[in-house]
Specification:
Layout lengths: L1 E4 L4 H12 L6 E5 L17 E4 L3 H5 L7 E4 L11 H22 L3 E6 L23 H18 L8 E6 L1 E3 L12 H12 L2 E4 L12 E2 L1 E3 H16 L7 E5 L5 E2 H11 L6 E4 L18 H5 L9 H13 L7
Parallel strand pairs: 1-2, 1-4, 2-3, 4-5, 5-6, 6-11, 7-10, 8-13
Antiparallel strand pairs: 9-12
């Protein structure tokens, strides 16, 4: 069996979709804590063996020998979370418990890190080294702390899972993100705002040299993010040589929020219209103006599948999900 924590979240549920539809696997254990009233619909199309609340997992794992891998996507993912005790318990300690279980039982372990670990980007976005990174918020720091802890475990020669990888996801967008509310992608917000008001609000360029709406991100379609995770999973299950490490998951090409919003509106087959607004105070000084993943390390590890372009991913998302009566994948 394959365990997916955060399996009712956007990335986790699309990993489960990939397992169901691409790998013909339904021996999946979904672990999560559903708090949004509609989030259960992320699982409505999935085939899986068990569902567990996140607090049930560690006791359920005790003594089991039928777990083939743990894919750990579960976390507090809000970049605005201010209670670091919650981040400590969920994003660090819970992850450490799962790593340790996988190490002791020699089970492959794959987990979600984040591009938020790179902070303001002054040191670049190269996953060859995570030294000296300074995240801009507690969420980013919690992910960076766990990355550092993992590398210390390995460097110290302590027990480690036989195959493992951490994934620094950049700006992921796509189906099954609807429960994320404010933290959902700009693609999702564009569709809803433009449908309701005929315009999309984007931030003004509040930093010198940044034009309105021209803050840049490496936008990656969720189906591509899931495909990378499942590549590492299948490599591990097939007992092929694997390169353990921490990897960027992006496209390697930054695009502007203006490009993204325009692509959404064009996919709706309507003339684009954008309104520029001031950035909220709680984001000022804690905002990434540019992200672009270095993809060299992932390519060297043997992943060569193409990623959707921004236009291709947005078109699939808008026309095959957001514009449909059933928008869930």
């Amino acid at each position: 069996m394959i365990v997916i924590t955060g399996g009712a979240g956007m990335i986790g549920s699309i990993i489960a979709w990939h397992l169901n539809t691409k790998l013909n696997r339904d021996d999946i254990v979904i672990v999560d804590r559903i708090t949004h009233e509609e989030q259960w619909q992320n699982l409505a199309h999935r085939q899986y063996a068990h569902y567990l609340d996140k607090d049930q997992l560690l006791a359920w794992l005790a003594g089991r020998n039928d777990i083939e891998a743990i894919i750990h996507m579960g976390a507090i993912s809000a970049t605005t979370e201010r209670d670091f005790n919650k981040l400590l318990e969920t994003n660090i300690q819970y992850s450490q418990h799962l790593w340790t279980w996988c190490a002791n039982n020699q089970v492959p372990f794959f987990y979600a890190s984040s591009a938020a670990t790179y902070g303001d980007g002054n040191l670049g976005y190269n996953d060859a080294s995570i030294d000296n990174l300074r995240p801009l918020n507690g969420y980013g720091y919690s992910k960076h702390f766990f990355d550092q802890w993992v590398l210390r475990q390995v460097k110290s020669g302590l027990a480690s899972p036989p195959s493992w990888a951490g994934f620094k996801f950049f700006n992921v967008y796509g189906p099954n993100e609807y429960h994320k509310e404010r933290m959902a992608s700009v693609a999702f917000h564009t569709f809803n705002q433009f449908s309701a008001t005929g315009t999309m609000k984007l931030f003004k360029g509040t930093k010198a040299g940044i034009e309105d709406g021209m803050q840049m991100r490496d936008f990656v379609y969720v189906k591509d993010a899931a495909a990378v995770v499942n590549h590492f999973l299948t490599t591990a299950l097939d007992a092929k040589p694997t390169t353990n490490g921490i990897y960027n998951i992006g496209t390697g090409k930054a695009r502007s929020f203006k490009d993204l919003a325009t692509s959404v509106m064009q996919s709706m087959q309507r003339a684009p219209h954008i309104t520029f607004i001031d950035m909220p105070e709680d984001l000022q000084g804690k905002y990434q103006y540019f992200t672009e993943a270095s993809m060299t390390k992932l390519t060297k590890a043997g992943y060569t599948q193409p990623f959707h372009s921004l236009e291709e991913g947005v078109r699939d998302y808008v026309q095959n999900y957001l514009m449909q009566e059933d928008k869930y994948c």
